[in-house]
Amino acid sequence: MKSKELKVLDEVYDDGDSLLLRNSGKEIRVNLGDIKHIRYGTKRSRRPTVIMNFRQDTELGTEVRFWPAGEDLLSWDENNDIEELIGRIYQANAKYREIQLEDIPALFEVRIATWENSNGAEELESLGYTYNVVKQMLKHTHQGWLCEIENRVVGFAIGNRKTGEMWVIAVLREYEGNGIGKRLLTMVEDSLWARGWLEIWLTTDPNEKVRAVGFFRHLGWEDWKMDGNRFMQKKQSDGMTTAKT
């Protein structure tokens, strides 16, 4: 089957929450939330190309492509403008909500997929984390939020309101770097501050090279102590130090 030839746009203007697209005398404006998918890379030629899929048919079709202005064979990581645009499109399509008990299987899938050197569900179970254990935690001591894109859970974060611990955060690799983890972490932090905690804490890998360490530091967390794992903390300037029930 012959592959479909995508329309190559003449001009693309980034207008914040929308894109203005022009091609062969036609002009349309597309909200970022109406872009179903965007990808960036090289295929037949070495010239970096952006391909976008729309949720609904437009005057320019459902798929278009364009070459970023001023590009000189830059790789994905080097193209900050396109990377930032992709992040905003993800955010426009992202839905955040509080975790419900029926979300637990999806949480396990995300955690296993993002856990470095993990042996999967068996290892989680060996550490005492089963569906039922997490269910009881969410019922009595823990609270969390998740992010969905296209009805798929792509990340989540959970805190322990009884101890002030930011217990776990996980975002699928393909969605990292788009502000999802930051927003989920902030939601847990805010919930713990609201519970009256003056200091909140977490544990992470002792290895400085693990990406999570830099992520937490970038968002204001500081090293607290080393005791097998790395303990980090974050302080609130006002509030109570006793957790509310």
TrEMBL record:
N-acetyltransferase domain mapped to chain residues: 94-237
Transmembrane annotation, as ranges: none
Alphabetical keyword list: Transferase
GO MF annotation list: acyltransferase activity, transferring groups other than amino-acyl groups
Gene3D superfamilies named among the record's database cross-references: 3.40.630.30
Domain of life of the source: Bacteria
InterPro entries assigned to the protein according to its UniProt record, in alphabetical order: Acyl_CoA_acyltransferase, GNAT_dom
Keyword check for Protein biosynthesis: no
Pfam families: Acetyltransf_1 (PF00583)
Protein's UniProt name: Putative acetyltransferase
Organism: Gimesia aquarii
